[in-house]
Amino acid sequence: MTVLSDPEMRKQLQALGIEPMPSTPAELKVRISKEIVDYSNLAKELKLSVE
User: Which end of the chain, N or C, is less surrounded by CB atoms within 10 Å?
Assistant: First the structure.
């Protein structure tokens, strides 16, 4: 049994606003890479910069 398949653990995470998304390391890498691109594009569109 994985931690994320434990109903009590899922309930606790959801109470914190976390939606458990079990995945393989490769799937996680793809999702994070996509989010980096998406948020980078959003920051450029909004003309945000780091000072």
Answer: C
pLDDT of 1 above 60: no
Is the separation of the CB atoms in 9 and 3 below 8 Å? yes
Distance of alpha carbon 19 from alpha carbon 48, whole angstroms: 28
Q: pLDDT category, 30, cuts 50, 70, 90? A: very high
Contacts of residue 9, defined as CB under 8 A and 6 or more positions apart, other chains included, come to 3, 20
Q: Rounded to an integer, what distance in angstroms lies between the CA atom of residue 30 and that of residue 26?
A: 6
**Triad 21, 24, 27: Cα angle to 5°:** 80
